Amino acid sequence: MQTSPIGQPVTSLTAAASRSDSGGTEFNMFLRLLTTQLQNQDPLDPLKSNEYTQQLAQYSQLEQTIQGNDTLKSILTRLSSQDSAQALGLAGRDVVLAGAEAGLGAGPATWRYTADRSLAAVSGTISDANGRVVQNVVLPAGSAGGSYAWDGGLANGNRAAPGRYSLALRGTDASGAAVPITVNATGRVGDVTIDNGVVGLDINGTNQPFGAVVRVLAPAG
Residue 9 contacts by C-beta under 8 Å, 6 or more apart in sequence? Predict the structure, then answer.
């Protein structure tokens, strides 16, 4: 493998440039090293044409890598700006989240649930962020879905601490057969935060990622 006059393999330089955020610096260094190498080659043992071609190919790959990184950064910046603008429009709106983890804070933790057929019986459990069951629930039957709000009340009369809680439900139909139930957390968006390009939503005291929103509910009234 051909090396530069200072002993650094060209392939190592190319790899470094591919990993670097400031690819332009390594790109310019590559040019200087290649030029110096050509100027200082041994006249009795000049650089072979195939070796020169290989280094030019590396040069081209390096240039494409740098251009690709710049394009990717530009795309990510635009996407982040779009997410931020859309998230700001959600302030004060009720949304449905992808999972069953809801926030219990100043207001109750709320969920929606759906099934593919009418439920004759619905029951389940509420678990904290550590997976510990804190409350058992029995919900109204007779339909293929509904909503549930939990104010944090526990069986012992105490109230659960603010935080994240998940609802898991099981149901049966009129024949006693089990019916799968899908549970989604819901809540009203408060503050919108943007930290290093990552957009978060404050929903009842818990921070939820903007990407977790699967539906925006129409305003009541």
Answer: 1, 3
* Positive or negative torsion for Cα 106, 112, 113, 118: positive
In degrees, rounded to 5, the angle at the alpha carbon of residue 121 between the alpha carbons of residues 116 and 125 is 95
Q: Residues, the chain, total? A: 221
pLDDT digits (tens, 9 = 90+) for 177-212: 999 999 999 999 988 887 777 788 999 989 998 888
Q: Which one-letter DSSP state was computed for residue 81?
A: H
Sign for the CA dihedral angle at 73, 79, 81, 83 comes to negative
Question: What is the rounded CA–CA span in Å between residue 203 and residue 213?
Answer: 11
Q: CA-based angle 128:132:134, to the nearest 5?
A: 70
**Mean pLDDT across the chain:** 78
Structure tokens at 130: 């550590």
In whole angstroms, what is the distance from residue 139 CA to residue 121 CA? 8
**Spatial distance between the Cα atoms of 12 and 102, rounded to a whole number of angstroms:** 49
Token pair of 39 as six digits: 């100027």
